[in-house]
């Protein structure tokens, strides 16, 4: 699919839609880490301790306030421990992880960004946040690269100094539009909450991707104060769409999937990661997601070596965290920074050297995402030059909720 000419304007609207999603994702909770729940086996990790001079890497998580997603930090910390104790560090360098957890508000976000500058880190890792527009400029002014796994704000997608390892909302909508076109979908409905003007923003973005594919797309806004949205969803599906997606947190996924069982049990479902979380399937049953298509930047089940390593690292260093939750965002961003750093020389590492390494990295595999790579040269999606990829994994959801037959959509 060709990139629509008006996407630069549309991408700017992603901030509100993404921010709403980031904030409400805090409802996801950790589960115990037995192998059945983890989605597959784990393995023994190698023993290769880092001995070289340390690299200061900043990790800004989300925790301690009204919005708290500790899995983000724990996933990143687990990845750093793996690099230091099992993977020989970053080209021999030991990782000195500087952690600051902000509360998804401007004041605490500013504090964390300034702390990274004061401590002279070589690179800042931000798994996911709604405060990128606050933090990225502070970090970038100091010449420090700001690397995120899940871009939320328009600033993260376009301001100098940012490197987004995935395409965020852009990748989801692009992947869903391409998949819908291949499956012969003519009518597509997006179910989304009524936070701010997220629905209008996503509607504009969706038109940019679905309309060129010849697909009519409609956004149905679900009131957040309604316990049972079945009447609203039934009304929104009156034109009998061929496929439906739910863009929201686990709570919205639960209410929407329950309503879909009544309102449109046979409709095709295109689901993002929050709708496949165990907290959702425990509430609605795996039959509510069976046969759906998933759109993710991670695979947590199965036997791919990078996925097994991800589960194994969490099992060893963060055993209280569910690998099927949001920990992958922290794990992926720190692990990816480690992969990029394989070209770094011995001796002290500066922010300039890490910036150069990021810009030079080509087709770096995304950890625990078989088939996905990133290249941060500004060409993956020129309308949003900080995106290092707009690819996404499209998988089939089985009866057990596990993903299979994954393909990459670019």
Topology:
Elements (H helix, E strand, L loop, with lengths): L6 H6 L1 H11 L10 H4 L13 E11 L7 H16 L7 E10 L3 H13 L4 E6 L3 H10 L4 E5 L3 H5 L3 E3 L3 H15 L4 E7 L4 H13 L5 E7 L7 H7 L6 E5 L2 H14 L4 E5 L5 H7 L8 E4 L8 H13 L9 H14 L10 H10 L3 E2 L7 E2 L17 E6 L5 E7 L1
Parallel strand pairs: 1-2, 1-3, 3-4, 4-5, 6-7, 6-8, 8-9, 9-10
Antiparallel strand pairs: 10-13, 11-12, 13-14
Q: In words, what does this structure look like?
A:
The chain contains 15 helices and 14 strands. It has two domains: 147 residues, Rossmann fold (3-Layer(aba) Sandwich), CATH 3.40.50.2300; 212 residues, Response regulator (Rossmann fold). The protein is 39% helix and 20% strand. Helix 11 packs parallel to helix 12. With 410 residues, the chain is an alpha/beta fold. The radius of gyration is 20 Å and the shape is globular. The strands form three sheets. Strands 7-6-8-9-10-13-14 form a seven-stranded mixed beta sheet, sandwiched between helices. A five-stranded parallel beta sheet has the order 2-1-3-4-5, with helices on both faces. Pfam families: Peripla_BP_6. This is Leucine-binding protein domain-containing protein. Keywords: Signal. It comes from Gordonia defluvii. Belongs to the leucine-binding protein family.
User: How much strand content do the residues show?
Assistant: 15-25%
CATH topology of the largest domain: Rossmann fold
**The top level CATH class name of the largest domain:** Alpha Beta
Find the structural class using helix and strand composition: alpha/beta
Share in helix: 25-40%
> What is the average of the pLDDT values?
88
């Amino acid at each position: 699919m060709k990139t629509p000419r008006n996407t630069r304007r549309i991408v700017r609207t992603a901030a509100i839609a993404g921010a709403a999603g980031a904030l409400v994702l805090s409802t996801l909770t950790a589960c115990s880490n037995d192998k059945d729940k983890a989605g597959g086996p784990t393995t023994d990790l190698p023993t290769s301790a880092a001995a070289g001079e340390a690299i200061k890497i900043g990790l800004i998580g989300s925790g301690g306030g009204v919005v708290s997603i500790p899995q983000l930090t724990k996933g990143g910390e687990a990845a750093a421990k793996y690099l230091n104790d099992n993977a020989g560090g970053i080209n021999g360098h030991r990782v000195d992880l500087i952690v600051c957890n902000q509360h998804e508000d401007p004041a605490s976000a500013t504090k964390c960004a300034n702390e990274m500058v004061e401590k002279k880190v070589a690179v800042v890792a931000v798994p996911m946040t709604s405060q990128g527009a606050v933090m990225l400029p502070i970090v970038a002014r100091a010449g420090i690269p700001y690397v995120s796994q899940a871009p939320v704000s328009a600033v993260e997608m376009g301001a100098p100094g940012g490197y987004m390892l995935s395409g965020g909302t852009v990748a989801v909508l692009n992947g869903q539009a391409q998949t819908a076109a291949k499956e012969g979908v003519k009518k597509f409905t997006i179910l989304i909450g009524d936070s701010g003007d997220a629905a209008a923003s996503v509607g504009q973005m969706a038109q940019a991707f679905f309309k060129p594919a010849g697909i009519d797309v409609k956004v149905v806004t679900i009131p957040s104060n309604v316990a049972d949205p079945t009447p609203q969803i039934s009304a929104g599906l009156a034109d009998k769409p061929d496929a439906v997606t739910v863009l929201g947190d686990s709570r919205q996924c639960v209410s929407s999937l329950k309503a879909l069982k009544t309102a449109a049990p046979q409709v095709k479902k295109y689901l993002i990661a929050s709708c496949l979380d165990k907290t959702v399937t425990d509430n609605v049953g795996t039959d509510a997601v069976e046969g759906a298509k998933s759109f993710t930047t991670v695979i947590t089940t199965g036997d791919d070596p990078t996925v097994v390593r991800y589960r194994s690292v969490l099992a060893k260093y963060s055993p209280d965290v569910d690998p099927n939750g949001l920990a992958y965002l922290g794990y992926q961003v720190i692990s990816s920074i480690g992969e990029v750093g394989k070209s770094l020389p011995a001796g002290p590492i500066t922010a300039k050297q890490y910036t150069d390494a990021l810009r030079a990295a080509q087709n770096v595999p995304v950890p625990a995402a078989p088939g996905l790579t990133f290249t941060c040269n500004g060409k993956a999606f020129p309308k949003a030059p900080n995106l290092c990829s707009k690819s996404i994994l499209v998988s089939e959801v089985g009866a057990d909720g596990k993903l299979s037959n994954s393909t990459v959509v670019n």
